[in-house]
Amino acid sequence: MSNKNTDQNQETNKEKETVKEIETETEKDKEKQKEEKIEKKEEPKSPFNKEIPLDIFDEPKEKWEDISKVLSTATSELKIGQMVHKEIFILDMLMTVPDIGVTKMDAGVFRDPNEFYSIDQTLGKFPLENIEADQVLGVMDKLFCAQMTYLSGENIAQTMYSCFYLQYLDKIECDLLKQFCLISLKFCSIARTLILTSSIHQEGEYFIAMNLGYNYMDELDANQVLQTITKYEKRIKKDLKEFQKNEKEKEKENENENENENEKKKQNSKKYLDINIDLTKIEFQTFLKSLLCRIIFQKKIVQYLLVKKTQLSNFKLFLNESLLQLQSIISTNKYCIKNVKGFYTDINRRKISPPAPIKKIELLPFEKSIELYQQIGKELLVLCDVPKTLNLKVKNLKFNQFQLSTFFDEFNNKSPNVLSRALISLIFFDEDGFYGGNKLRELIMDNLVNYSFVDKTFLNEKPIKQLGEALEEPILKFFLTLCNNRGRSRRNLSNLFENWEIYVQHGTSLDHLIILKKMEKIGLFEKIIRNIPKSTQSNRNLLSNAQLKIALHRPISSWMLDISSEYAIRYIKSGFGLDLFSIFEYASIYWYLSYLYLIKWQSNQAAKTIQSEYRKYELRNEMKSIKKGHDFNTQPSSNKRKGKGKGKGKGKGKGKGRSKQTQKSKLSQIRKKIKMEGNLIQERTIENNFKFLYQLVSKALTYSFLAFETIGAITIPENSKVHFASREKIFQRRIASVSKIINSSLDYQKFIDAHSIGKTSAESFFKQAIMSFDHALNIQKKLQQKVNQLSQNEKLELNVLKKVIFTNKISLKLASDMHSQNKKYTIEPRFDLHKVFPTIGVK
């Protein structure tokens, strides 16, 4: 048995030795093949024939077939403007569709022969140890460019993680550079959480919210990173002061001695914070300053994002400090290396999966990154000054929907960054309430009281409370839509209109409750309406008694109509900003817009007139009661002091004097209140006159485009040539969302009947347009007389409208003269001055 076992062992050993020999021979053959490949000088292949390494794919290389013939036959069947897509097609799909053969979208075409296919290949191509000073400053500035590219709407994989230093954090020798990379990534992480919580990002900014499998270091505490950065900040400041002191002492000692260039060098091939330093004394001092300003800058931008919403003073302080440090970064950028090693935007391009696009991107240049951050800084400084611009108080906030909506409009007109829009939504609206703890429901009810005939006593009624609770959600959604870009805000407004009719019906059902409780006063009001003098309000002839009675008998309905018209106007105006309307649609769109402005003006003017007249009526009744001696607040006549003996009634005289003084003081106070009410009416007429001015300009533009249409200066597509729909269907589609909240029977046929299109001549349209512009110019002059009462933005708006009215008036006169001479011309509406009302150029 033992002999058999020994024989078996010998055979197994022989087999093992043969296997080893075979393996060594194969290894030797592989090495020879590699050496032969290196020795052979092959001709450079084209990018299409380049062999891509298989280690980046999970599956073996696929075989490609030419499908150009199939694509050409498929495209021949399609018309211009048509696309092949599913029935459920959204804008997000359009942005993520890769264009085949386009270098920006197709990751497999025209690849750079020097590019990397995997992160492991980058090791050794850039320094992780023995990093030079200019390389450190260059990496810091390039990371800043990556941050700004990320905030401009690109994904994290091709911006921040294009830096190889973030891929090899553990292998970086310089701990300062490691902490700087971490705090730069932490800024993007905090900005991402703010954008996600606000949920205001658009399709183009959607990739900011995606992580694409990369770590944002959310588990890392931001305060811990800030503490380590502050330690380095203190150390560099200390070293800089000591260096400056030593240099001053050496300068005193060597005033009369000439130093050689070699003596000017501080240290040769020495390290400072694991950074190679081979600099002169002056260069080392500038290096410390430039290093310090970059550290402080990154620290401050992280600090102001961590500040609580109520502490806007600290937010402004950190923001100003970051902008100050940015100036020193600009001045020291010349000391950085130009070609920074360790950045490649396409390194993670193959790993990105849908819905993120695989497009080729480049980091923003340093100058554009500086401009972008300066723009963000200006936008955020505007947010810090919100209480001053809107006269807001944190605890006692007067809710003015018109004032807030104009503020949001002015803010969005500058096309703010996604971070600025996220912060404005978080500052104004949070879980605790509206702008620092104010309950939005209470503010809505105060707005109802300030607008209409409803007293504060009605706010305690259950139905009114339920209305306030119901309206809290849609009005909050409305203000959140204003924080978005124009495209998303228009879409959100249309979604808001879906359920707004339910709230309007709920509000109108409460009008009978107020009428029952106010039946006695409503009878007095009807007398007041008949005797309202024309001097109490501007444009009295446009307000009929019927409209005033509607505001009287339906206070909540008129208030809801005012809000609905504001939403509808905003929706129509957003179409001009997005360039959705064709030139042949302008006449019908401006006609509908003038109707909305008229509703807005009439409802607001009627409600304010009744409200102010009722207050004056009550104040006059109080004056009458005081004059007659029926004032219960003063002491009655029986309590007068009686004189005794030789007093000769002095006490009695004093009592009469006191009562007269109190009567005079109360009468003077009431007169002041009446004057104040008159001033309030003037302020309201300023706001309403702007709406009336907009209505007149819209009306004039309607007649203008109708005149050009009858002449033939506007090319109208015929129904047979139009591929998408007829003009009537287009108009109904434009106002489909608005008609849900404005209960009107306006349609395209009424637009034709109102203007007698086809029967009215162009001359009459020109005359009506010029008359409307003249009327608008008169309203503009009235507002110009009250310049002291206007805000700065209202003054600018008034001057722009004046230019629009004048230029259009001249263009219409020129066009009518050319038409009378039978000259042909074309028009070109331009939105250079105003974003809604164009200036018409005649060619």
From TrEMBL:
* PROSITE patterns linked to this entry: IQ
User: What keywords were assigned to this record?
Assistant: Cytoplasm
Signal peptide start-end: none
Q: Where is the composition biased (Basic residues)?
A: 639-669
Where does this one sit in the cell? Cytoplasm
Basic and acidic residues: compositionally biased ranges: 12-45
Q: Where is this region: Disordered?
A: 1-52, 246-266, 628-669
Superkingdom, natural source: Eukaryota
Residues annotated as coiled-coil are none
**Pfam families per UniProt:** Mak10 (PF04112), TPR_NAA35 (PF25789)
Entry similarity comment: Belongs to the MAK10 family.
Task: Please state what the protein is called.
Answer: Glucose repressible protein mak10
